[in-house]
Amino acid sequence: MPAREELTGAEQDLAERLGDSKLAEDLRLLSAFARDRDEDGDWQQASRASTFMTMAQLKEFHEEYLKLVHRFGSDRDTAPADARMILLRWIGFPDPRGS
Q: How many angstroms separate the CA atoms of 33 and 86, rounded?
């Protein structure tokens, strides 16, 4: 996706609505999992952290995350028989409350 400043006002609005829609879907899926986690609880892994990074470090972290996804993940055709679709979400952003 192009940088936000490269988008027209209408494109920025559309991108914002798309992002809101994706976030709402992610929260709906997480909520559904949380309601039924007794049967799937062993499949959940979670972590929450905060740290200080430069923009360059954040970009490098993102690239390393993508490498991990490709290293450990499989597509449907090559996945082991006991594999399940796992929803991964990674987002890093500056604390809007300030640092």
A: 11
Distance CA 95, CA 50 (A): 9
Q: From CA 70, how far away is CA 92, in angstroms rounded?
A: 19
Contact 51, 95 (CB under 8 A): no
pTM of structure: 0.75
The alpha helices in 1-99, defined as continuous H runs, are 9-35, 37-40, 55-72
Handedness of CA 70, 75, 78, 80 (dihedral sign): positive
- Per-residue pLDDT of 23-56, as tens digits, reads 899 898 888 887 877 666 678 888 889 999 999 9
Which pair of structure tokens corresponds to residue 52?
A: 């200080």
Give the pLDDT score at 40.
Answer: 66
Q: How far apart are CA 31 and CA 47, in angstroms?
A: 17
